[in-house]
Task: inverse folding
């Protein structure tokens, strides 16, 4: 009798939860019962069915019933609505007894899966009882209802999930962005078509269960971020093997430290792009009187991928370091380190251990290590030479190279004879397609018949040899080393002669940023967004140097374009633009936003070539998957 009383008490509690849900839904003008799949399919017929067999269904994904007939027995949260003196109550309590026995409810339900949600045909009361006892999964025999394909983003994500399920056999990972399932495969070290083994599935599930529990503890405000998205974000810094070994308490600490960055994942506008150096801002009277925020000295550090003696890229940043020391004198103490062994995180830790309060990481490849360090050292300001990175703990900085490339394209168009222009790009990082397209637009402005033959330094083989086989007479790119874009070269008898060079002057950027810290004006209008500094020709960070071989008229043209960009009278992308598929990307009446330029993932119609996917890249570049545009 005592046991029966306990089950009756459980039913009464569940009934109260059902009635509360019902009243709340009615007051909001919403349907208070379980949604019925048959009704949904009457509005949009299925395209087919697939038997998925017996599986463990995540309880939270069971959201409705198959038919309308059983809906009034249960509220929309699967809690009962029938009174205690009903047959429904008696059967519910019997299942309650069964669940509390040693093995619990083992009889699988029968249900249908549609667009990632499950609708019960047999076993609604079992689901109700198991939900009451907070069971994370329920065994069930599942039939998938295949929906009609549409251009709706959520529908496309679901079709990506169906493919992922074929490979992994996993449910319960929900993403909100296209391409996420394939990125997860890559982040786990799998190829896009890798079929998971049973052991891989078991190991991942154990790690994900622990990760979800940690995420639930940290996600107190119930943000719209999903655990799967948070996991994919963390996999950029911690391999799955490391997460597997982490205790849940440590995972919670890591997630709490990354929460500022994680909270930006669902923000449609997560980045504050600062396009020009900001003028010195006057601090309030009391702050000025007390000297709040003002500093007389700072310990800064510069981290190089390769030594300045070996690398033109590092040499340009080191020249910026020397300029800062010359301009600021005793106000800044500078240390440098070269991490040619690739241990960027260790190098950052050593610099911080030696007293660095501000670190400039001068290579995009250092971004992940900067983010890891930011979670441990809140008082250290970390900036990485990268573009369009939505991370609050690390500020990024770069130059608008596309402006210089627009000038380079126009000069090349005036110089080329046959119109076969080669372009050697590094890797399809964020921002690189905008550089290629700006060059193509500049080329078209002076030579409409010319075309850009695109090749990549990140692909296996010799890209320059491939371009020469295509008969290019000029090429944009770096021909005398392994650094970033350097300029435009005329090829005569396969011997390169420079026409112009891209010039970097990082010193001006470094000086401005350090002065903003010393004066107490570092991010005075913090918005909670990630900060990206993206300065152009008008700041002097990037420029073009014309070689003496250029005819006077061509040089004058280049100088006029540069002057127009400096004074913002010329906008390279404010023109009619078609992509390679003939789609109109700009009708000529407007310009692109900074974010659209950074995240550009298409090529102009006068470009021959493609943006290679991660699977085509050399191993060195493939490891930087999170920095790629595709």
Result:
């Amino acid at each position: 009798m005592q046991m029966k009383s306990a089950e009756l008490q459980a039913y009464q509690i569940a009934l109260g939860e059902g009635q509360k849900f019902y009243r709340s839904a009615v007051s909001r003008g919403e349907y208070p019962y379980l949604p019925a799949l048959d009704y949904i399919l009457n509005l949009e017929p299925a395209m087919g069915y697939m038997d998925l067999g017996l599986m463990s269904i995540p309880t939270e994904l069971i959201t409705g019933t198959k038919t309308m007939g059983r809906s009034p027995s249960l509220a929309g949260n699967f809690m009962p609505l029938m009174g205690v003196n009903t047959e429904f109550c008696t059967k519910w309590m019997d299942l309650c007894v069964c669940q509390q026995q040693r093995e619990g409810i083992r009889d699988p339900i029968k249900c249908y899966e549609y667009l990632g949600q499950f609708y019960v045909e047999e076993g609604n009361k079992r689901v109700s009882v198991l939900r009451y006892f907070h069971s994370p999964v329920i065994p069930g025999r599942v039939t998938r209802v295949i929906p009609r394909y549409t251009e709706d983003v959520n529908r496309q994500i679901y079709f990506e999930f169906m493919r992922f399920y074929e490979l992994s056999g996993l449910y319960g990972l929900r993403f909100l962005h296209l391409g996420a399932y394939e990125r997860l495969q890559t982040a786990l070290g799998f190829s896009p078509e890798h079929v998971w083994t049973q052991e891989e599935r078991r190991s991942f599930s154990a790690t994900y269960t622990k990760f979800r529990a940690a995420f639930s503890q940290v996600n107190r405000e119930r943000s719209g971020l999903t655990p799967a998205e948070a996991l994919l974000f963390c996999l950029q810094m911690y391999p799955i093997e490391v997460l597997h070994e982490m205790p849940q308490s440590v995972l919670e600490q890591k997630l709490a430290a990354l929460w500022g960055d994680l909270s930006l994942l669902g923000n449609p506008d997560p980045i504050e792009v600062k396009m020009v150096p900001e003028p010195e801002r006057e601090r309030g009277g009391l702050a000025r009187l007390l000297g709040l925020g003002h500093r007389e000295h700072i310990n800064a550090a510069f981290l190089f991928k390769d030594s300045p003696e070996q690398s033109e890229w590092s040499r340009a940043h080191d020249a910026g370091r020397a300029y800062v020391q010359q301009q600021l004198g005793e106000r800044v103490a500078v240390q440098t380190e070269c991490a040619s062994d690739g241990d960027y995180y260790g190098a950052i830790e050593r610099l911080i251990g030696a007293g660095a309060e501000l670190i400039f990481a001068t290579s995009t490849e250092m971004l992940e290590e900067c983010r890891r360090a930011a979670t441990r050292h809140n008082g250290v300001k970390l900036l990485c030479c990268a573009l369009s990175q939505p991370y609050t703990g690390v500020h990024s900085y770069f130059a608008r190279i596309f402006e210089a490339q627009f000038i380079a394209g126009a000069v090349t168009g005036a110089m080329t004879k046959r119109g076969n222009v080669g372009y050697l790009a590094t890797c399809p990082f964020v921002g690189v397609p905008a550089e290629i397209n700006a060059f193509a637009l500049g080329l078209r402005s002076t030579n409409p018949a010319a075309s850009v033959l695109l090749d990549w330094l990140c692909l296996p083989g010799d890209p320059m040899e491939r371009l020469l086989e295509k008969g290019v007479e000029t090429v944009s790119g770096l021909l005398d080393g392994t650094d970033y874009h350097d300029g435009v070269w005329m090829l005569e008898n396969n011997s390169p002669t420079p026409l112009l060079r891209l010039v970097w002057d990082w010193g001006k950027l470094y000086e401005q940023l350090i002065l903003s810290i010393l004066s107490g004006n570092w991010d005075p209008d913090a918005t909670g967004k990630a900060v990206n500094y993206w300065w152009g020709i008008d700041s002097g960070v990037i420029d073009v140097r014309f070689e003496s071989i250029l005819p006077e008229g061509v040089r004058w043209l280049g100088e006029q374009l540069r002057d127009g960009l400096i004074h913002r009278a010329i906008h390279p992308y404010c023109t009619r633009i078609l992509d390679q598929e003939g789609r109109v990307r700009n009708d000529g009446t407007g310009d692109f936003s900074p974010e659209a330029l950074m995240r550009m993932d298409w090529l102009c119609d006068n470009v021959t070539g493609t943006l290679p996917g991660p699977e085509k890249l050399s191993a060195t570049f493939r490891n930087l998957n999170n920095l790629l545009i595709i």
